Amino acid sequence: MKYIIIAGVCILIAFLVALSFIPLGIEPLTELYVENHTALPASVNLNKTYNFSFTTNNLEYQDVEYNYIVEALDVNDTTLFKIDEGKFTLTNNESKTINESYIFNKHFNRAKVQIKITKNLLGKPEFKTKLWWQDPNYPNQIDIHFWVDENVIQKKL
User: Kind and range of the H or E element at 8?
Assistant: First the structure.
C-alpha cells in the first residue's frame, strides 16, 4: 500500500511539473479599429476634407513595431492616392490612435479607404519559452477599410 501511495504522489508531481510548462490561454493578437465608425461619411464631396482616426492596441505579450499605410483605392483595388504612412512601436497592452484626413480631388464614383498594418515582433516573451507553438494562421498583416461614394451634384438647366 505504501508503494502505491508513493507512486501516486510521484505521478501527481510529474503531472504538475508538466502543467507548469504549458502557457494558460495565451492568444497574442493586435486590435485595429476605426474610432467612432458610425460617424464615417457614406458619401463625400470633391475638394472637401474629411477626418477619421484609427487605433492599434497591442495584445501580443511583447513589444511590436507597426508599419502602417493608409490609402484610397477604387473598386478594382487600384490606388487612387496615398493618405499616410508611418511606423510606431507599442509595448504590451499599449495602444496608439492616429488621426487622418483625406480629400478627393478627382471624380471616383466609389472608393475604399484602407488602413493596413504590418507587425514586426520585437524580442521573445516568456510564454514562448514554454510548450507553445505559433498558430499557422497567425496574421503578420492586418487591414481594415470603409467605403465612400462620391456625391454627384446635379446642375439644373
Answer: helix 2-20
Q: What is the pLDDT of residue 24?
A: 57
Task: Show the domain range for 32.
Answer: 26-150
Domain count for the chain: 1
Interatomic CA distance for residues 102 and 104, integer angstroms:
7
Residue 107 lies in a domain: yes
Say if 13 falls within a structural domain.
no
When pLDDT is averaged across residues 20-32 and rounded to a whole number, the result is 75
- Is 18 within the bounds of a domain? no
CA dist 70 and 117 (Å) reads 9
Q: Are strands 29-34 and 49-59 parallel, antiparallel or unpaired?
A: antiparallel
For the stretch 83-128, pLDDT in tens is 999 999 999 999 999 999 999 999 999 999 999 999 999 987 776 6
Distances (CA, A) of 110 to 25, 43, 72, 149: 42, 9, 10, 4
Q: For position 144, which CATH number holds?
A: 2.60.40.10
- Distance (Å, whole) CA 13 – CA 121: 35
